[in-house]
Amino acid sequence: MVKYSYYPGNVARQSSREVEDTIQPLCRSLGIELIEIVGYNGDGGNIIKQGNKDLQLALNARNLAIAEKNGHDIITACASAQGILHESLETFQKDPIALAKANRVLEKTTGMTLDGTNISTNHLLHVLIDEIGLEKIEAAVVNPLDLDIASYYGPHMQRKGACGGDDAWNPTYMEQLITALGGRPVDFKTKTSSVGNPSILSLGDSVMKLTARVLNDAKKAGAQVLVSACTQSHSNLDSYQGKAGRVANKDTEIPVVNLTEIIAFALGHFTDRFAQLRTRALIIGS
Amino acid sequence: MPTIAKVWIEEDCITCDACEDILPEVFAVVDDSSLIKSDVREDGVFDRNTGFSAIKAEFRSEYSELIEEAADACPVEIIKFEYEGGAVEVEPQEVAPAVEAVVAPVALASDTGADEGVLSSVLSGDRSLAVFFGSQTGNAAGLAEKTVKRAAAYGLEGTAIDMDGYDQANFAAHKRILIITSTWGEGEMPDNAEVLWNGTCSTNPALAGVQYSVCAIGDSSYDEYCKAGHDWDQKFSSLGATSILEIKLCDVDFDEPWEQWVSEVLPRIACVDSSGVFHEELVEAMIAYGSGDEDDSASDGDFTPGAIIKPTVSLTMRIFRYDPIMAQSGYDTVAVALPGHATIEDALVAIKGDVDGSLTFRKSGIAGINPLTGIKANGRIVPADTTRICDLVGEGATMTLEPVPGYEVVKDLMVSYDRYDTARSNSKPWMDADPRQGERLASGEAMGVMTSTEAIRLHALADVGSLQLINAMSDTYDVDEVYSGPGVALQRWVRSQDSRSGNSHIKHMFDLMQGKGGVWAEADISSIHRHGIDGSQAADSLYAARARLLAEYKFTGKTGRLVKNYSRSVKMSGNVNETTLYRSVLGPLGLGSNIMNGVSLRMMLGFTRNGGPMMRGFQGMLVPPAGIGKMPDMFNSKVANHHEVVAIFNELDRRF
Q1: Theoretical Cys-Cys bridge with B7: which of B81, B133, B231, B241, CB 3.0 to 4.6 Å?
Q2: Residue A158 and residue B655: Cβ atoms within 8 Å?
Q3: Residue ranges of the alpha helices (H) in B516-641?
Q4: Burial of B298 by CB count in 10 Å (0-12 exposed, 13-18 middle, 19+ buried)?
């Protein structure tokens, strides 16, 4: 068993419970033990940062310090959370003044301090490919996906250092994973583009157009299903896809699931939900 | 130059005739090889001279240089020779530095032997030269380095000394001092010279026995032109030092006047002996002495830049093509093999020359860097003229080249930057100062001022290579025609932070940033942030601008409500409460719109996704409209040690 401090992100235990439902069994199947970051707080979603950068940094310093105390690197299933955590940690590692400022607040308010030199933050995807290995995953497949699946990475974690050994600009880890899970990867050109999730409530048409572009590109490329590595962006891609299609006047109808769901399905968990997905893919996706 | 005693031809001549063209008296090319003519050889034989017969003595000095030239020109390097005394020539690549390093002093000695004898009184003993620099932007420091390198030609051992941290008490230890300084602001010392200047003025160290000269850099459009240089000149003179050459004033284009100064001052100060006495009568001889080293001039640095060669890469290039007449677009695919160190522009030029002359793209100017050569290469927004292929892809890869997004495509890879230019000119993000009381020039005109610290801070806010390309890095810019773009936003932000800007102009900049198409139009700053250093810098500035606007406009509008309520919900429970957000940011009208648009229905029913049981969807209907969303909790339970989160908020920002 490999152990990681598990950071659920902002919505996996809120509106996107399907992520929380599926990450636990899939990690058990693949020998990953998720250690709770007890008392973890929201990472600020790059929204608190707009009002006060130091505040968002301090909130992330708290999560990092708890994980550091646990003694395990962090894992998350949300690309946005990984991007924010990684950026915060990188700031602390490169800027001793920022670290000192955060630690001053942290020590005063929590009694903890962050060292930051012996901890890393990781997205589930990169742990699976870089540490668990595709062979082990392939061997654990119970229900091969057997679908044409496009992968959405989003921009948040697609930076050097934040995406494991994957290429930040032309990532292929999800495609490799889908192949290992018995699916057929479908490449499309906007897989790392933004869908404007931080502005979903404050901006109208432009966010819908960004969302529609990704959905339409995936669909045009021949995908039956779109898989999102970003739990936050999933909300745009799924709940808003009808509105996005109307605003942008594009065909956007495609089933969208989170990465944790599709892995869990292939590993034999939630067979009823997998059956639903296959039905929807047949009706909507093609 | 040493003379050549023997010359011969090795095997594998390709009969290119190069040697015969250069020296037909010695070389003759026949069907299968070049041969050494019998007339010039001691043995009188006409062959490749593999027996190493000597060249007749009467021809050696006359032909030696041309034989070397022929050997250098030989493409297969088979012409070999031996100098008198038995030294065999080495590979041409190795000869150049060896000759440069070894022969120059010999030439110097022979040319100026008489001078050296005369100069022996000053060339011996302490030859140190202290070149102090007072530099704000690095120009004076650069000139000091160059001066030190040039000083070596006059037998001086120069050292460039940063004024920062130098103890004025040590000035007197030098016999030869040169000062190169810029002037900052309104006649002030550069930052690195300020402490030394104040220290010198307060302690007034005696400088008798010091020979010096000053080179001052300034801007003649300022009233206090080169004041820092004048100050040092007068101070040194008043402390008893002797000016060896009057102060040189250099305007903005300082290279030429510095060149004049350094050419004159170095031979003069080199004639100061180790006891500090200046021998003016030796200056002419010193000039001749120094000129013997002319070829080793280090004005552009004392090294030859290494050739940066990368192995050839073979790749497939997919190039976007657009024909504006036919209104057709598509991709051309070209297989290319290029040096890895070639830039994208090099590749495009090669393709245009060898494959398709109609390919259209922007080329860099003669300066070599053009911020408008931007291109989208495998998703990255990069300048084509300075981006190397090897930094983007490896052997066998495919590189897709597309026009930068967000702009109208003129043809193929060329876009029009009119959209940027229009947004910029409409917002007038240039300096617009109000006259301010108490800050006036000697002429009585009001003026704005800026400290160097502020200047650097402002520069850092928008320190990017191309504002046009910053726009293209934004995913939103490509889909929102009203958005003026992050590049223009950066300019507005910088001007709003400029202390010289008038109040009304600052207000204008804020209003533009806050208004439609301003900084809040950017849907996701992370799409900019990931574009390397420039993207990261732009993102930081956009976040800073947003924070300032929230304070200025008191969290008004949807964006203000979003940030305020998001932060408050995290403070209240430790995690964001989406229910609260939907309700407070969208308001009743927004929620109604979501219902009408079907967004809420999709959320409730989990229409396309495979979330939890359907009941979760219906839970959202219990307290409409608060519960509408992807079924978040109505109320968050507090995280463990929630008081810590509250304390962090209270410590850093009590607005939430």
Answers
A1: B81
A2: no
A3: 526-529, 532-552, 557-573, 578-581, 587-597, 599-605, 614-619
A4: middle
Contact B212, B241 (CB under 8 A): yes
Chain B positions touching A21 (Cβ under 8 A) are 612
Which of A11, A13, A14, A247 should one mutate to test binding to chain B, selecting the residue with the greatest count of B CBs within 10 A?
A14
Instruction: Read off the DSSP letter of residue B368.
Output: S
Q: Do the Cβ atoms of A255 and B570 come within 8 Å?
A: no
Q: Which residues, in sequence order, are CB contacts of B327 under 8 Å at separation 6+?
A: none
Phi/psi class of residue B276: alpha, beta or left (left: φ > 0; alpha: ψ in -120 to 50)? left
How many CB pairs lie under 8 A apart between chains A and B?
Answer: 229
Least confident of A186-200, A232-246, B577-591: B577-591
Encoded tokens for A276: 């639903």
> In Å, how far from its chain's centre is CA B466?
13
The DSSP bridge partners found for residue B383 are B374
Bridge partners of residue B184, in order along the sequence: B188
In this structure, the answer to whether residues B283 and B427 fall within a common structural domain is no
- Cβ atoms B644, A39 nearer than 8 A: yes
Provide CB contacts within 8 A for A144, sequence distance 6+: A181, A182, A183, A266
A103 and A231 assigned to the same domain: no
Which burial class, exposed, middle or buried, applies to B251 when counting CB atoms under 10 A from its CB (0-12, 13-18, 19+)? middle
Instruction: Tell me the average pLDDT across B452-464.
Output: 87
State the sign of the Cα–Cα–Cα–Cα dihedral B369, B375, B381, B384: negative
Higher pLDDT, B79 or A184: A184
For B156-180, what is each residue's pLDDT tens digit?
988 888 898 888 988 988 999 999 9
Q: Is residue B306 part of a domain?
A: no
Cβ A128 vs Cβ A250: under 8 Å: no
In angstroms, the CA B376 to CA B294 distance is 47
B293 pLDDT more than 50: no
Position A11 in a domain = yes
- Tokens read off for B442: 């000697």
Q: Are residues B230 and B325 in the same domain?
A: no
Give how far B530 is from chain A: nearest CA, Å. Answer: 6
Q: What is the DSSP letter of B478?
A: G
Nearest to B512 by CA among B541, B538, B539, B545: B545
pLDDT of residue A241: 86
- On whether both B404 and B291 belong to a single domain, the answer is no
Please choose, from the candidates B453, B512, B518, B508, the residue with its C-alpha nearest in 3D space to the C-alpha of residue B480. B518
- Is B611's pLDDT higher than 70? no
Taking the alpha carbons at both ends of chain B, their separation in whole angstroms is 83
Encoded tokens for B603: 């959320």
**How far is the CA of B184 from the CAs of B140, B219, B224, B226, in angstroms?**
12, 9, 10, 9
Residue where one domain finishes, among candidates A54, A88, A123:
A123
Predicted model pTM: 0.67
pLDDT at B632: 56
Rg of the Cα trace of chain B?
36
CA-nearest residue to A155 within chain B is: B527
Q: Which two tokens stand for residue A41?
A: 């707080």
Which residues in A lie closer than 8 A to residue B526 (C-beta atoms)? 46, 83, 155-156, 194, 198
